[in-house]
Amino acid sequence: MAGRPLLSSARKAVLLAGVAHLLAVSFAQTSEITCFGISGRGYTNNTRCPGSNACCGATATCLSNRLCHNAGDPPDLWIRGPCAVEGWDGMCGEICLYSKIPNPPANSKAQFR
User: Fold this and answer.
1) Is the pTM higher than 0.85?
2) Which residues does UniProt assign to the signal peptide (predicted)?
């Protein structure tokens, strides 16, 4: 046993890969923040989406179009989450902002929070 390394090269590689994965996961998680609905109401337990001011719930996935997708929802169901900036700006999700339209369509099924 004298002169043999404590860990083989393969075990070192597995150990390093595991440590790298744990570090990546911990850095990928963002802190939860309060974001704001179009009405100004605050919603807790959100995360800011990368490269925008759009927010998604802590367990939802941010999409590149600034919409959110919740695990377990159908693949064609997207959510416009709140915004990290109170008062909204051009970096927030801007789909279905009916409160900015003087007379929303009568047949609109949009639900507001």
Assistant:
1) no
2) 1-30
Whole domain around residue 82: which residue ranges?
31-100
**Phi/psi at 98 (5° precision):** -65, -25
CA–CA separation, 52 and 46 (whole Å): 13
In a domain, 95, yes or no: yes
Tokens found for residue 54: 């759009």
If phi over 0 gives left and psi between -120 and 50 gives alpha, with beta otherwise, what is residue 51? left
Encode pLDDT of 60-109 as tens digits: 999 999 999 999 999 989 999 999 999 888 899 877 655 554 554 555 44
In a domain, 49, yes or no: yes
* Nearest CA-CA partner of 51 in 36, 66, 67, 32: 66
Question: Residue 77 falls within a domain, yes or no?
Answer: yes
For 99, other C-beta atoms within 10 Å of its C-beta total 13
